[in-house]
Design goal:
By secondary structure, the chain is an alpha+beta fold. It has helices at residues 2-9, 24-28, 60-71, and strands at residues 17-22, 34-37, 40-43, 47-52. The protein starts with a helix and ends with a helix.
Length: 72
């Protein structure tokens, strides 16, 4: 949240972020909240987490090249 507030203070476009509470029930019923590590599925932890409206890209390298082209 510090980075977001700093970016906003500098006038940069930043996604909205909030502290959210993730319940045990949500983790148990959402397959995407498991991390695959060496064939094991490890559930994420419940509790307070940082939530962002920025979804991201399935091709992060593309975003970096696009950003570099725009700033050059």
């Amino acid at each position: 949240m510090l980075a977001t507030n700093l970016g906003l203070a500098l006038g940069l476009p930043m996604p909205r972020v909030e502290v959210i509470v993730v319940s045990d029930w949500l983790i148990e019923h959402t397959q995407d909240l498991r991390i695959n590590l060496s064939g094991f599925k490890i559930p994420c932890r419940s509790g307070k987490q940082l939530g962002s409206l920025y979804v991201g890209s399935e091709r992060p390298a593309h975003d970096i090249r696009l950003f570099a082209a725009r700033t050059a």
